[in-house]
Amino acid sequence: MEQLLNSGIKQIIDEHAEVGPILEAYGIGCVPCSVGTCLLKDIVDIHGLSATQEQALMTKIAKAVYPDRDIVIPLRAKTSTENGTDLTYSPPMKKLVDEHTWIKRLLAQVPNLIRTLDLTAEPGRQLVRDVLDFIRNYADRFHHAKEEDILFKYFDEKLDILQVMLTDHESGRSHVRAIAGAVEKQDAATVSEHLAAYRELLTEHIKKENEILYPWMDKEMSDSQIGQMFAAFSDVDVTFGDGPGKHIAFVETLEALNS
Amino acid sequence: MECGCPGSKMMDRRDEDSGDAPAAAVNSQLRQWPIQLHLISPEAPYYTGADVLLTADCVAYAMGGYHSDYLKGKSIAIACPKLDAGQDIYAAKIRSWLEDAKINTLTVLIMEVPCCGGLLHLAKQALAASSRKVPLKAVVVGLDGEIRSEDWVTD
Ligand SMILES: [Fe+2]
Ligand SMILES: [Fe+2]
């Protein structure tokens, strides 16, 4: 069992395809992951299952991998914070989750934006530029900068999960570049395609961060690191001044426009 | 039916197995003096930029692992929200930790009895009044010395 825990997930799924659906039943979506070198033990740990859920999951996996052996998985004692029943974040992580809420509200406006897209007139082009301004300055410079320059620095950036997150950020940036170029060419099809792709990418990305990455990081970080990170985030907030407030106001205006 | 203050309700647990005593001597993790909240100065050097534990008086007696699990690497003050007088002074000292000593985090350790919640309330109020914010954590300890909950306060 120890050996299994220390195996890469892609290897386990390749050799025992039944493990994929078992993981999926517990909300662990490793099958479509492009990297897949995470170790099974890290995956189980990172998803913050309750002790009984973890025991049941590991029993099913053990049965799938070693069908002719009778392996009894002990109930691993967990503290109340490890039980993953409700998500409570540390104050700095809560800041990031609150920022996600604004990004999600912007993403919710994207279908409407695509439906009413009119690049032939200047106001229509300006609306897309304003959306890009939100994405570049709020979602990327303000929010992703906190993640990339501060939060991720507390961890080994070679970790698969961080590589996946960083790749998502880069993919988001390339969608933004594609949209920016297409707006000026009045290429509505390309703008729509990349807006929709950006929405899909960020929706999944935020879900991964809120439900998996942040709770795991919170568990790994010491109180002292949480305090340092909170102070560093506060410094970023001060540096950006009323910029984020203006971007939030833009989302509200967009919502009012479409309601 | 018995009623009255749950904070002073008698409990006799002498029959319960308390487990083995530690094999080796337990080192104290206390690195400062004084510790009582009326006696400390919030601007003492060991509070500057520190992770501070504000611990209700009874906690360290109830918990077996207080020194190694919580006190290690931190600075401390102790108080009783039920019996101590002059709690407005406490509020001012907590605020001074936040604004003057620029502490890194504040962890309030209290017993699960209702009256102990007053200490957490005091810390929350001081934080709300302070111009400088830090992460605040609440640890609730059972009468059996077990941790009932340990959560960051984010409201
Ligand atoms: Fe991210
Ligand atoms: Fe994020």
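^ fe (ii) ion complex. Residues 2-65 of chain A form a domain with the SP0561-like fold (CATH 1.10.3910). Residues 79-85 of chain A have pLDDT under 50 and may be disordered.
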